[in-house]
Each structure stands twice: as C-alpha cells, then as structure tokens.
Amino acid sequence: MDQLWQRMANLVFEMDKKVAALDGNMPFQRVCDKMKGAIEEAGIYLYNPVGEKYSETRTDVEGSISGTSMNNLVIKDVIKPVLYFNENGKKMLLQKGVVIVGEK
C-alpha cells in the first residue's frame, strides 16, 4: 500500500480530532468526512479505538499506560489510528494504533 495514503490517513485523523474539539464545526467536519471517504476509496480504513478495553494482548495497538493502576484499563486517547487495508476482500492491518491507556 502506498505510504502517501497512509500519511494522508494519519493527517486526516489528526485534523478530525481537532475539528471535534471545536464542537464539531460543521463546515470543517464535512470536509474531514469527505477526505475520510476518499481515503476509504483508496482501500484504507481508519479505526479509532478510543473508549475500548485495553489489554497487553491486543495486537492492533501500542499503548502507553497513564497512571499506576493496571486494572480495568481503557483507551483514553488515540495518537495514531489503527489503519486497515482491503486485500482480496480481506481486512489486513496496515498500521498499529498508538494510544494512551488509563484506568476506567
């Protein structure tokens, strides 16, 4: 898969997070959605696992644990999204997500 599309997917994800912090400013959100659609047309799928349960056995993310607790861990923030691409109708991992993990 072309690394340019992977870089674009990461940039669009970062921009989408910033737009969401602006309370979903609609004109900008529409542009982000269109850009995500173009990336999906190229066969790359962005996945944001924020809020999901985290364990060290997960293979789709690399987590940094915030705090001292190791129980009931969830993904608090996503630095880089999980990226998948479609190969012969099968979803393949292109990029592991980079996440911040903390206690639920």
Key descriptive features of the protein:
104 residues, three-stranded antiparallel sheet, three-stranded mixed sheet, 35% strand, alpha+beta
Q: Layout of helices and strands, plus pairs?
A:
Blueprint: H1 3-21, H2 26-41, E1 44-47, E2 61-65, E3 73-80, E4 82-87, E5 90-95, E6 97-103
Parallel strand pairs: 2-6
Antiparallel strand pairs: 1-4, 3-6, 4-5
Q: How would you describe the overall organization of this protein?
A:
With about 100 residues, this protein is an alpha+beta fold. The protein has one domain. It is about 35% helix and about 35% strand. It has two helices and six strands; from the N terminus they run ααββββββ. The strands form two sheets. A three-stranded antiparallel β-sheet has the order 1-4-5. The protein has a three-stranded mixed β-sheet with strand order 2-6-3. A hairpin with a 2-residue loop joins strand 4 (about 80-85) and strand 5. The N and C termini lie far apart (about 35 Å). The model has no long low-confidence stretch (mean pLDDT about 90).
- Whole-number count of domains: 1
CA(first)-CA(last) distance: 36 Å
Please tell me how large the radius of gyration is.
15 Å
Secondary-structure-based class equals alpha+beta
Spans of at least 5 consecutive residues whose pLDDT stays below 50 are none
**Strand percentage, roughly?**
25-35%
Largest sheet: 3 strands, antiparallel
Question: H/E series, N to C?
Answer: HHEEEEEE
Instruction: Determine the oligomeric state from the structure.
Output: single chain
| Helix content class | 25-40%
The strand line-up of the biggest sheet is 1-4-5
Shape: flat
Strand tally is: 6
